[in-house]
Amino acid sequence: MPLKDKKNRKIYYNSWREKNKEYLREYAREYQKKNRKRLSNNAIISHREQLKKLKEELYLLLGNKCVRCGFSDFRAFQVHHINRNGGKTRKKFRNIEYLKYLIIEAKKQIKNKPSIELLCSNCHAIEHYDDRIKLMKRGQKDFKNRGGKSGRSKLIEDDVREIRKKFNNGYSIQGLAKEYGVGRLCIRNIICYRTWKRVE
User: Fold this and answer.
1) pTM above 0.70, yes or no
2) Fewer Cβ atoms within 10 A, N terminus or C terminus of the chain?
3) What tens digit of pLDDT does each residue of 177-186 get?
C-alpha cells in the first residue's frame, strides 16, 4: 500500500490539503463556533499555568524571599532591576517572554554580577522612593528638562498660553486638541492647571 511509505504518505496528505483548503477552513470555523467557550477557557487556563510555573522558577532562582527583610510570601514578590533599567526592559517583552528573559538573567548572575534581585512590594517601593530623594538632593532632578525643553514634549510654553487664552475665548477642547495634535485629556489638564502649572 503506497500510504505505508512515509514519503508517499506526506505527498498524498499535502496534495489532499491543497485540494480541500476551503473545506478545511469551513470545518475549522464551525468547530471554533461550537467550542468557543471551551477553547477560550483552555487557552486562559494554560496561559495562567505557564505564568505560574515561570514565576515559581524565577522566585526559586532568586532565593524565594525578599533580600532586604526576608519576607517569603510569593504574593508580594517583585523583581527589582539593580541597574535601574526595568522600565525600558519591560517594554521590549510581553508577559511570558519577559519572565523567560528574567529567568535567563537570574541564571547568568549565579556566575556574574547580579542585575536583578527579589524584593517584597514594601521594600521595592521604599527603594525607589529613596532613589528619588537621593537624586533630588544631588541636584540631578532640578527640573531643567521639564515642559518644552523635554525632547518628548509636543508643546512649548507659548502654545500652552495660547491654548488657555483660546479656551477662555470660546474654543472647544476637541478643536484645540486637533489644532495642536494632542489628546483632549492633555488640553483639559492644561486648562485646569494640572500640567504646566508654572506657566502663567
Assistant:
1) no
2) N
3) 888 888 889 9
Q: 147-191 has which fold?
A: Arc Repressor Mutant, subunit A (1.10.10)
**Phi, psi dihedral angles at 180 (to 5 degrees):** -100, 0
Phi, psi for residue 77 in degrees, rounded to 5: -70, 140
CA torsion sign for 111, 88, 129, 55 is negative
Closest by CA position to 103, among listed 120, 115, 88: 115
d(CA 115, CA 106): 8
All cell numbers assigned to 3: 500510504
Task: Locate the domains of the chain by residue range.
Answer: 2-34, 61-138, 147-191
pLDDT < 70 positions in the chain: 1-4, 42, 44, 138-152
Cβ burial of 160 (10 Å; 0-12, 13-18, 19+) is buried
